[in-house]
Amino acid sequence: MNEQPSPDAHGTSDEQEPLRIERRPNGVAVLTFDNPAKRNPMSARLTARWQDAMRSLRRDDALRAVVVTGTGPAFCSGADLAELADRHGRGLTDARERLADFYRTWLAVRDLPVPTVAAVNGHAVGAGLALALACDLRYAAADARLGAPFVRLGLHPGMATTALLAEAVGPARTRELLLTGRLISGARAAALGMVHEALPAAQVLHAALEVADEIAAAAPLAVRLTRSGLAQGQPTVEQALAWEGLAQAVTTTTGDFREGVRARQERRRPRFTGA
């Protein structure tokens, strides 16, 4: 099912919607940026749509995975520079508050209770790259250009790029990429560990959907708890044992666990319901 947000103060119904939402029968939601002429910038209108989408998805108990992708030559070109430049001269406090709201809105993807997959169909630049890095899994077009060229625009990196990039490629590569503002190919990004795999552009969304479908076919509570555990970063062995002792105990009490065992014994695919 495709969703189209209703018109509001950010635009009229005559304008093209910058975000398309498709909810698939298996609980996978696909969010597609759809302003290819401008390379899918994070405009005020798209940001508002994204915020609405995150609120809606958080309330969806049937949700099992989310795929984020774009149309045209770009995944996302980052913040709308024209809008950002318009705010010049409004003062440090105003700029800080606006940017903090912007960051929180877009990074809300990390607060979703299910795994998220970025299908980086094309260029992912600046905050667009940060968004891809904020997703749990990433698959990119081999010829896409990825990078965070903030310093080449006279800007400090934003939207937690310093942390998210370091989490993906380590501190040494992060220093190299952020201090130079260098753009790299999707193929190079895969070699560095920035994305999980680089593919021909036409195959990226298909690959991401296959992964999302695999996640959706697993036991929902087990997936959500596993994601929560992974989100804790790099725990010590004792911290991991404490979390796993609780989370695994919870899952052993579920009907899905019993179904998983029966399916293994009967050599068939399990039918998980989330119960």
From TrEMBL:
**Region Disordered, residue ranges:** 1-25
- List the catalytic activities from the record: a 4-saturated-(3S)-3-hydroxyacyl-CoA = a (3E)-enoyl-CoA + H2O; a (3S)-3-hydroxyacyl-CoA = a (2E)-enoyl-CoA + H2O
Stored CDD domains: crotonase-like
Q: Which domain of life is it from?
A: Bacteria
Keyword list (alphabetical) reads: Lyase
Q: Does the keyword Lyase apply?
A: yes
**Residue ranges under compositional bias (Basic and acidic residues)?**
11-25
Against InterPro entries, the record matches this protein to:
ClpP/crotonase-like_dom_sf, Enoyl-CoA_hyd/isom_CS, Enoyl-CoA_hydra/iso, Enoyl-CoA_hydra_C
Would the keyword Lyase be found if you checked this record's keyword annotation?
yes
Q: Which family does it belong to?
A: Belongs to the enoyl-CoA hydratase/isomerase family.
- Show the PANTHER family listed in the entry: ENOYL-COA HYDRATASE, MITOCHONDRIAL, ENOYL-COA HYDRATASE-RELATED
Q: What is this protein called?
A: Enoyl-CoA hydratase/isomerase family protein
Give the species. Streptomyces catenulae
**Taxonomic classification:** Bacteria, Bacillati, Actinomycetota, Actinomycetes, Kitasatosporales
